TrEMBL record:
Residues 364-412 form the Peptidase U32 collagenase domain. Pfam families: DUF3656, Peptidase_U32. It comes from Candidatus Aphodomorpha intestinavium. This is U32 family peptidase. InterPro entries: Pept_U32_collagenase, Peptidase_U32, RNA/ubiquinone_mod_enzymes. Transmembrane segments: none annotated.
Length: 682
């Protein structure tokens, strides 16, 4: 594996709008990330249209700051042409990278602008080397790792991939694994995967007497900066595109200080925004109740006294670009050359009366004027004189310096568009699916298995699969891989799968990118699960290229989007199930002694008294399930290749009853939901 030479840690700051952009750059950020009006995971930020993006890139590039553009939402088929236009706008602005979640969107970026670097959003939920390997195959150059990893786990992934590694260093923490949360969508129709998370997790979900059981404190990982550098991290990302400019400035300043080996101003950082303090629980692996917190009135009141002093951090330009000046007094008229090592500009002395003086006096006057770089992004690297200092007054010298530096800044900020092809969305034919979908059954436990003779596929968690079950059900049985796989478990899972292959296992259900990689290495048929967030025909084609035999579509998709999706890859939907709304590594069920005495099962109650079951998965992560099951019995599903009944907490009798009802198109008794299937997706 070829690795790039180590580079200095990049400080990557959020820019939700132009004020935040200025604050980030003037506070010392090496790079900023921002979103367009559309296809940004923070659609409620101010964001940037095409013209504002060009101005932003020009401003940043003139000051040696890189610009990463977030195109990190799931994209629907009907939006692919608009997404292609957005990619062209990013290329026209000369941006430095695109941050992408949707694999179909990534394929479009590569097709339209092959030279635009692709960064894999944390929404892709990459926790391990096998996931990074899938990204490498798709042409990504950087992975933003999942926030749940420890420093040691980050190091393990970084050591196993040639991709640049980016991690979050400060800011809000999602309770769920990123990209795996559908709570906002299922409860209110506003999808976080579409940039409109309503943050219901910050409401009062209770675990017994303990409130706000889904609200984590903000991350502050500055104490681990040296360890992250040693782990192979390239970029430190600050969360916060919805935050005020003062927050951005304080966070960048703190990161700058920590990187320089100085003590960061944690008082100002906490005052400007925190939720009962900070946590580094994911980085250390101490995922205790101390990670949880809410924003109190005291937290909010603490901000006002520090805002003024923080604003001073970005009131003026930061000198960050070295400039070489050469004053030629022998030229007629005298000329000033200004260069940055790449560009050179010149300015002639204005037509003004001479200001004679002794040679030493003229030299001192010229030096004083040339050294006045305050209010510009330049610092003086070298100053040379060709011949004697010219007999110019201070005003003439200052005017010449300003003209040269303005010209150099404009030249540095000149937009350099990236080359685009005439490519666009694939001209895919409508999908020719069957009149009625085949039945697939997913069970959480082997004892639930029913209606096996009516199903084309039986899906069972890999830890439940045994040689006896493989012998009984043959190629009809698929082993479901965990939604998250941490580096310490990667080799163990691979060896278990290899052993099951020896017993005749033929297929897996992959709920994460890593599963496609492992399936390919073992020669297993890979069925793509809803965890892969397939939302468009481009994504289906991309997953097929990675080895997927078929795909369960995201259950956030409305009916019309699912039924009209083009392309050849067989696809299906979840037609029944208590859908997983969140996946946790910081478990809300834990007591004061962590997992001690926990049965791995419990529930959370929202402010209306509705109960949501939580189940622990082999002490690796836990899952929050919806309070009521989805049921699409009787819905129009023609054109889909399969429909999956997704059983989790049900008894064997209930599983059999649901399967029978669905096969005969009968309604179910009791509360149920159709999720976003009938409606639109925001």
């Amino acid at each position: 594996m070829e690795r790039k030479p180590a580079e200095p840690l990049e400080i990557l700051a959020p820019a939700g709008g132009e004020e935040q952009l200025t604050a980030a750059v003037r506070s010392g950020a090496d790079a900023v990330y921002l979103g367009l009006i559309a296809f940004s995971a923070r659609r409620n930020a101010a964001n940037f249209d095409a013209d504002a993006l060009r101005r932003a890139v020009s401003y940043c590039h003139a000051r040696d700051v890189r610009v990463h553009v977030a195109l990190n939402t799931l994209v629907l088929d009907a939006e692919l042409d608009a997404f292609a236009d957005a990619v062209r706008a990013v290329a026209a602005a000369g941006a430095d990278a695109a941050i992408v979640q949707d694999v179909g969107a990534a394929a479009l970026v590569r097709r339209i602008c092959p030279s635009l670097p692709l960064h894999a959003s944390t929404q892709m939920a990459v926790h391990n080397a096998a996931g990074a390997a899938a990204l490498e195959r798709m042409g990504f150059s950087r992975v933003v790792l999942a926030r749940e990893l420890t420093v040691e786990e980050i190091a393990a992934v970084a050591a196993a991939t040639p991709l640049e590694v980016e991690v979050f260093i400060h800011g809000a923490l999602c309770m769920s694994m990123s990209g795996c949360c559908t709570l906002s969508c299922m409860l209110g129709g506003r999808s976080g995967n579409r940039g409109l998370c309503a943050q219901p997790c910050r409401l009062d979900f209770r675990r017994g007497a303990r409130g706000y059981a889904l609200s984590l404190k903000d991350l502050c990982g500055l104490a681990h900066l040296d360890a992250l550098r040693a782990a192979g991290v390239r970029s430190l990302k600050i969360e916060g595109r919805m935050k005020r400019p003062e927050y951005v400035a304080a966070a960048v300043a703190a990161c700058m200080a920590a990187r320089a080996g100085e003590v960061p101003d944690l008082f100002a950082l906490r005052a400007v925004f925190s939720r009962s303090g900070f946590t580094d629980g994911y980085l250390t692996g101490r995922r205790t109740l101390d990670m949880f917190g809410v924003r109190t009135q005291e937290d909010a009141a603490a901000a006002a006294p520090v805002l003024g002093s923080i604003r001073r951090l970005y009131r003026a330009e930061r000198p960050r670009v070295g400039v070489d000046l050469r004053l030629d007094g022998a030229a007629v008229p005298p000329r000033l050359l200004a260069g940055d090592g790449v560009h050179i500009v010149s300015a002639a002395a204005p037509d003004a009366p001479a200001a004679p003086g002794a040679p030493q006096e003229l030299l001192a006057r010229a030096r004083r004027s040339m050294e006045k770089l305050g209010g510009t992004p330049f610092f003086l690297r070298t100053l040379e004189f060709a011949g004697d200092a010219p007999p110019l007054g201070a005003s003439s010298l200052n005017a010449m310096r300003r003209e040269a530096l303005d010209a150099l800044l404009a030249l540095r900020g000149r937009v350099a568009p990236l080359i685009v092809t005439d490519g666009g969305p694939l001209p895919l034919a409508p999908h020719a699916g069957p009149d009625a979908p085949a039945l697939r059954l997913r069970f959480a436990r082997a004892e639930q298995i029913c209606a096996a003779d009516r199903a084309e596929l039986l899906i069972l968690p890999v830890r439940q699969v045994t040689p006896a079950l493989i012998a009984q059900y043959g190629p009809k049985l698929a082993a479901e891989l965990p939604r998250a796989l941490y580096p310490g478990d990667e080799e163990r899972l691979f060896e278990r799968l290899r052993a099951l292959c020896g017993a005749g296992l033929a297929a897996v259900q992959a709920e994460n990118l890593y599963g496609l990689t492992l399936a390919g290495r073992l020669g297993l048929r890979a069925h793509g699960g809803f965890g892969l967030n397939a939302a468009n025909a481009e994504a289906l084609a991309a997953y097929a290229a990675l080895g997927a035999a078929d795909m369960t579509l995201s259950f956030e998709l409305p009916q019309r989007a699912a039924l009209r999706m083009g392309g050849a890859l067989p696809r299906g939907v979840i037609a029944y199930g208590r859908l997983p709304l969140m996946y946790f590594r910081a478990c809300p069920l834990q007591g004061g002694d962590g997992c001690g005495g926990c049965r791995g099962a419990g529930e959370l109650t929202d402010r209306r008294g509705t109960s949501f079951p939580v189940r622990c998965e082999a002490r690796r992560y836990s899952v929050l399930y919806n309070s009521v099951p989805l049921y699409l019995g009787g819905e129009r599903l023609d054109g889909l290749d399969f429909a999956t009944l997704y059983f989790t907490l049900e008894t064997p009798d209930v599983c059999a009853a649901v399967a029978g009802a669905f096969l005969h198109g009968r309604p179910l008794d009791g509360p149920r939901t159709r999720g976003p299937f009938r409606g639109g997706l925001l």
